[in-house]
Amino acid sequence: MTCYTCKRIEMIKNNKFPFFVEELETGYVVLGDHQYFRGYTLFIFKDHVTSINDIDKDIQLKFMQDLLLVQEAVYKTFKCNGVDIELLSNSEHLTWHIFPREDGDVPNNSPVWSLHKSILYNTYNMLNSNSAKEMVSDLRETLNNLKKTR
Ligand SMILES: [Zn+2]
Residues within 5 Å of ion ligand 1 by Cβ? Predict the structure, then answer.
């Protein structure tokens, strides 16, 4: 198994991934390694699939429903102005990227990826087990409360 994301899923299953938030029907919710956008969250499809076009239509719809739940939880937990949601076609493993956005966080209201990598992936923004604890528990609580309303 060489997929980076699949390795993380193995860590989640073994209770060894500190940024793991919640397991939903179609995927895993985890906080991103870098938090320039505080609350940056990933929603990872459970199986190793590269493209959303490689899964059945009914599973696609369920995956989208779960995504809507995750993005609402991110929005409410991190009290941002809005969220950017992206599914990247060049990704090795089907993963949604959910970025909480604030006014002025990127010059000229540009997409998150317009930031230079030296800013986006600066070690200063790296999450660690301690800084993740409160964020993980807050996001988990919001997710579980939202689940009850659906
Ligand atoms: Zn994978």
Answer: 3, 5-6, 48, 93
Ligand 1 centre and the CA of 43: distance in Å? 13
- Domain boundaries defined on the chain: 4-148
User: What's the CA-to-centroid distance between 106 and ligand 1, angstroms?
Assistant: 30
Query: What is the full per-residue pLDDT of the chain (150 aa) written as tens digits?
Result: 689 999 999 999 999 999 999 999 999 999 999 999 999 999 999 999 999 999 999 999 999 999 999 999 999 999 999 999 999 888 899 999 999 999 999 988 889 989 999 998 898 899 998 889 999 999 999 999 999 998
From the CA of 18, how far away is ligand 1's center (Å)?
Answer: 19
Residue 71 structure tokens: 């993005």
- H-only helix segments in the chain: 4-13, 57-78, 117-120, 129-148
Ligand 1: distance of its center to the CA of 42 in Å?
A: 14
The domain defined by 4-148 folds into: HIT family, subunit A (3.30.428)
Distance CA(102)–CA(53), nearest Å, equals 32
The length of the chain is 150
Cα of 93 from ligand 1 centre, angstroms: 5
